[in-house]
Design a protein that fits this description.
A 6-stranded mixed beta sheet has the order 5-4-6-3-1-13, covered by helices on one side. The protein has a 4-stranded antiparallel beta sheet with strand order 10-11-9-12. It has 10 helices and 13 strands. The protein is globular. The protein is an alpha+beta fold and 374 residues long. The structure holds alpha-D-galactopyranose.
Length: 374
């Protein structure tokens, strides 16, 4: 089952890096992610049965999912992602046909680069093609998000699945998470390069902390709604939030302040990107990290150590954590002619401070969901 040439379709979906707009997607804010050339590829072939047979290139597990009873697989460690995708794809009215899927995920797990979104999006794409249907990337993203909520237990926003499905080569997506309106902005970093560095810190309790943050923003919204005409936190102006400070518990205020300030930073960053002002873009990255550390409290020792080391390097114009936080990666804007020196110095200092060995990725900005017949 592991020979890729025996399959009929090759379907891949991208990991993503979010340039800025962190922890605002579930508050109706705008985000600025890019799809990466780090991908999950699913090889698929119809098998004429009522089962979806799963195999992995890097795991010994072999699992058969009965398509008549998918709900029962919610507790499986790996296969719950595929089960959730199949369940919601079918529930949305699409035909589900038995097939063999071989999953080859090259997005590093726990890296904050959205390996789970890439797995979900590629899986739904593979299920669609196996049943003779052409997948619509936006619908795939929305159903993948449902699978993440219900089968993986993470109450995530839409950013990761959307970026994984709809990314465009050499573009960043300015995605309005309230309306799903998306503007593809060409990435032109001039004499700077984007460097992604993985803390390599094992994640734990990430899901519960993530869901806790989301709940805190919902508390903020429901309190503010008593006196403001708003649909989501992203609708609140930073100065209006200040005026309502006294009505919010202190922690809830700090979470909300991060969200409204971050929304403002995304607006400024998109403008800076469009006029090619990388100095300004970099400063906004750094301010975003500070806010995620001090107000949102989702960074931790390792991400802070990597970010601080980056800020001190003369060739770095800005750096921040990317993704949900509590480990995972930083994204750094670094003068291209000094990238090697930057990587060496930052990783060395990080190792000295934390004991972990960081890993750098030379990832390219790539397309999202891509498929072809083999
Ligand atoms: C995770 C979630 C996203 C988003 C980010 C934080 O990656 O899946 O929806 O909330 O965290 O910006």
């Amino acid at each position: 089952m592991t020979d890729k040439n025996d399959y009929r379709f090759e379907v891949s979906a991208a990991g993503r890096v979010n340039l800025i707009g962190e922890h605002v997607d579930y508050c109706g804010g705008k985000v600025l992610p890019c799809a990466l050339s780090l991908k999950c590829t699913v090889y698929a072939r119809p098998n004429g049965t009522d089962f979806i047979n799963l195999a992995w290139t890097d795991l010994p597990d072999r699992i058969a999912l009965d398509i008549r009873d998918l709900i029962k697989y919610g507790n499986l460690q790996h296969a719950r992602y595929q089960a959730g995708c199949a369940y919601f794809w079918h529930k949305a009215g699409h035909e589900l046909k038995g097939c063999d899927l071989l999953i080859d995920c090259k997005v590093p797990f726990g890296s904050g680069l959205s390996s789970s979104a890439a797995i979900e999006v590629a899986t739904i794409g593979a299920l669609a093609l196996s049943a003779g249907e052409t997948p619509d990337p936006v619908e795939v993203a929305l159903l993948a998000q449902k699978a993440e909520h219900e089968f993986a237990g993470v109450n995530c926003g839409i950013m990761d699945q959307y970026a994984s499905a709809c990314g465009k080569k050499n573009h960043a997506m300015l995605l309005d998470c309230k309306t799903l309106e998306c503007r593809q902005i060409p990435i032109d970093t001039g004499e700077y390069s984007l460097v992604i560095i993985n803390t390599n810190k094992p994640h734990n309790l990430v899901e519960s902390k993530y869901n806790e943050r989301r709940a805190e923003t919902e508390t903020a919204l429901s309190i503010l709604k008593r006196s403001l005409e708003i649909d989501c936190l992203a609708d609140v102006d930073p100065s209006v939030l200040e005026e309502h400070k006294a009505s919010l518990p202190p922690t809830v205020f700090r979470r909300a302040k991060h969200v409204v300030d971050e929304c403002e930073r995304v607006r400024l960053a998109a403008e800076a990107m469009q006029r090619g002002d990388m100095e300004c873009f970099g400063k906004l990255l750094t301010r975003s990290h500070v806010s995620l550390a001090e107000l949102y409290e989702v960074t931790g020792k390792e991400l802070d150590s990597l970010a601080h080391a980056a800020w001190e390097h003369p060739a770095c114009t800005g750096a921040r954590m990317t993704g949900g936080g509590f480990g995972g990666c930083t994204v750094n804007l670094v003068r291209t002619n000094a990238v090697e020196d930057f990587k060496e110095k930052v990783c060395l200092r990080y190792k000295r401070e934390t004991g972990y060995t960081a890993v750098c990725y030379n990832a390219q900005i790539s397309n999202g969901l891509v498929y072809n017949e083999i």
